Amino acid sequence: MGLKIGVLAVQGDFAEHSKALVGVGAEPVEVRTPEQLDGCAGLILPGGESTAMSLLIRSAGLEQPIRELIEAGLPVFGTCAGMILLASRISDGREDQLSLGAIDISVRRNGFGRQIRSFESDLSVRGVDGPAVRAVFIRAPVVEEVFGDAEVLASVEYTFDGKGSLRVPVVCAQGSILVTSFHPELTDDLRIHEMFMVMIERSN
What we know:
Blueprint: E1 4-8, H1 14-23, E2 27-31, E3 42-45, H2 50-59, H3 63-71, E4 76-79, H4 81-86, E5 87-90, E6 103-108, E7 119-123, E8 133-137, E9 142-146, E10 151-160, E11 164-174, E12 177-180, H5 191-203
Parallel strand pairs: 1-2, 1-3, 3-4, 4-12, 5-6
Antiparallel strand pairs: 6-9, 7-8, 10-11, 11-12
């Protein structure tokens, strides 16, 4: 078996990430307790509902162990809600919203609009060779600011009501942290997960 990669499994589309990890030769571990983080070479925070995930992470006793692993340099990949959890700032977060402060970005929840505003787009992602990456955006967060050491690896052109067309970052990285606004686990293209695996291998 390949490297053990944890997938936070308290809420959201963790099963799809587990399937993608098998596709890139990794061994997914569904994480619901702190003990299940042991031995994981990386961690994925999936899409879902970020406020519900915040409450469940805390009730499962996972917040502090995850913070400590991030501080120790564990590679972590957050998609959609996972991006929100990893962000340093959440401009419209609730008081009980978890912010792990792992990457220097400011995000707005559901910034691309509600479910009916879901869309797909072809992206050129720095570090991903070959044809464009098909990205699926579902109630996706918007990155409003990138600062500090965070880097933008891909952006999308989007027309916001009342604001016109803007170029918005949708893939960002900082050290061993990778985040996407979209759901790479919902397509058969495994290249974003492969990028994360390369980050893990380089961190070892």
